Amino acid sequence: MEKFSLAIAKGRVLEDSVALLAAGGYSVEELSGDSRKLVFDLPRSNLRVLVVRSQDVPTYVDRGAADAGIVGKDVLEEQRLGLYEPLDLGVSRCRLVVAAPREKSNGKIGPLRIATKYPSLAREHFSRKGIHTEIVHLYGAIELAPLTGIADKIVDLVDTGRTLKENGLAEEEIILQSTARLVIGRASLRLKEKDARDLLARLSEAGQKNAVRREARP
């Protein structure tokens, strides 16, 4: 029988997803370890997990290389591939924000330079406000951009905001609240309906239990 494949974004999304998969009854011992493997066949199930970069998850699902995926809403909104998104898992909570140096310089001439890994969302946000921008597309260490003078502000994903503060930046506004979402390829939903609905049911139940635990915390 062909495995049902699930692409999961590396990092915090992977950690939270492994916990949900475990709560859903999957054997995730190998996933929980310190392995450099990128493909895992979970024991006693028909599920194969692919560990990929977050920006690649929608592409894997859209192109049929994975039947389903778990990735942040920020990535889905940036790429907008129109994937079927049946479930908000409620984990990996963060926010996409505009941030700028706490000590702002005066006399800015020309378009506002925005450094970001989210060019489409950043451009749309400032366009709605009627602000002309120059987007500086970076792939990491976005906080360095204002410090080195290549950007005036940044648009980046934050959790606690600690990294911003440590680099002399302050949040100005929130563009998007993000959590991890389950997406399923439309062809897989049709051709592998049983596996797709089984995964959806298990993760939905695990997510509900997780939400109850969060609400019960003092």
Structural notes for this entry:
- The protein is an alpha/beta fold and 218 residues long.
- The chain is 36% helix and 29% strand.
- It is built from 9 helices and 11 strands.
- It has helices at 12-23, 29-32, 57-62, 73-79, 119-128, 144-148, 162-166, 186-191, 193-216; strands at residues 4-9, 39-41, 47-52, 68-72, 84-88, 94-101, 112-116, 133-137, 153-158, 169-178, 180-184.
- The strands form 2 sheets. The chain has a 6-stranded mixed beta sheet. Strands 8-7-9-6-10 form a 5-stranded mixed beta sheet.
- The radius of gyration is 19 Å and the shape is elongated.
- 34% of the residues are buried.
Strand order across the largest sheet: 2-3-1-4-11-5
SSE string, helix = H, strand = E?
Answer: EHHEEHEHEEEHEHEHEEHH
Give the CA-CA distance, first to last residue. Answer: 46 Å
Estimate the helix proportion, in percent: 25-40%
Main sheet specs: 6 strands, mixed
* Uncertain stretches of 5 or more adjacent residues: none
Determine the strand fraction and express it as a percent band.
25-35%
